[in-house]
C-alpha cells in the first residue's frame, strides 16, 4: 500500500452545491408511511449515523403548537418543539458539518411564526440566518464555512 494513500483528504472548501449530502426522508417515522409512530429520537439516530439533511413535515397542531407527522395518514404526531430540541442536542455530536432542515410546511401563518420562534430560541447562534442569492451557485458558502450551523430550506 502506498503510504501516501493512507490519509484521506476531502476538500470541503467548495460551494455547498458541489457535494452529495446524506439525506433522510420522513426522518421522524419509525416504520412505514401509513401507520407507524412518529418519534423525535429518530432524528438523534440519523444525525449520529452521519445524515446531514433531515425532513420535518410540519402541520397545524392543537393549542397553537405545530406538530410533525406524515399528513393524511394514521401516523402519530409529535410536537415540532420536541423535534427541534432533539436536533439541537444531536446535530454536531458526530459531525461538525452543517445540518439542513428540509421543512415541508403545511402550517397556517400563526403556526409558521411559532416554528420561526422555536428555531431562533432553540438553535440560537447555530441557526444560519444569512441570506443567499440563488442566482449563482458558485457564491454558496462551503461546508467548511458552515461548520456548526443549521440551515433551513422550506
TrEMBL record:
Q: Does the entry feature the keyword Hydrolase, yes or no? A: yes
Instruction: Kindly indicate whether the keyword Signal belongs to this entry.
Output: no
| An example Gene Ontology CC term for this record | cytoplasm
Q: What is its EC number?
A: 3.1.4.11
The source organism is Anthoscopus minutus
- Domain of life here? Eukaryota
UniProt keyword list: Hydrolase, Lipid degradation, Lipid metabolism
What Gene Ontology terms describe what this protein does at the molecular function level? phosphatidylinositol-4,5-bisphosphate phospholipase C activity
Query: What are the GO BP annotations of this UniProt entry?
Result: lipid catabolic process; phosphatidylinositol metabolic process; phosphatidylinositol-mediated signaling; release of sequestered calcium ion into cytosol
Q: Where is the Phosphatidylinositol-specific phospholipase C X domain?
A: 10-154
Top enzyme class: hydrolase
Pfam families linked to this entry: PI-PLC-X (PF00388)
Question: What catalytic activity is recorded?
Answer: a 1,2-diacyl-sn-glycero-3-phospho-(1D-myo-inositol-4,5-bisphosphate) + H2O = 1D-myo-inositol 1,4,5-trisphosphate + a 1,2-diacyl-sn-glycerol + H(+)
Q: What protein name applies here? A: Phosphoinositide phospholipase C
Amino acid at each position: 500500500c502506498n503510504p501516501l494513500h493512507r490519509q484521506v483528504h476531502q476538500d470541503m472548501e467548495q460551494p455547498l452545491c458541489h457535494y452529495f449530502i446524506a439525506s433522510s426522508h420522513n426522518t421522524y417515522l419509525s416504520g412505514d408511511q401509513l401507520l407507524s409512530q412518529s418519534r423525535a429520537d429518530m432524528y438523534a439516530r440519523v444525525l449520529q449515523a452521519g445524515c446531514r439533511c433531515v425532513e420535518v413535515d410540519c402541520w397545524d397542531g392543537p393549542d397553537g403548537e405545530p406538530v410533525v407527522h406524515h399528513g393524511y395518514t394514521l401516523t402519530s404526531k409529535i410536537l415540532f418543539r420536541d423535534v427541534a430540541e432533539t436536533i439541537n442536542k444531536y446535530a454536531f455530536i458526530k459531525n461538525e458539518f452543517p445540518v439542513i432542515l428540509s421543512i415541508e410546511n403545511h402550517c397556517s401563518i400563526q403556526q409558521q411564526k411559532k416554528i420561526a420562534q422555536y428555531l431562533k430560541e432553540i438553535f440560537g447562534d447555530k441557526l444560519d440566518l444569512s441570506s443567499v442569492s440563488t442566482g449563482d451557485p458558485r457564491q454558496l458558502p462551503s461546508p467548511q464555512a458552515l461548520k456548526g450551523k443549521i440551515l433551513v430550506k422550506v
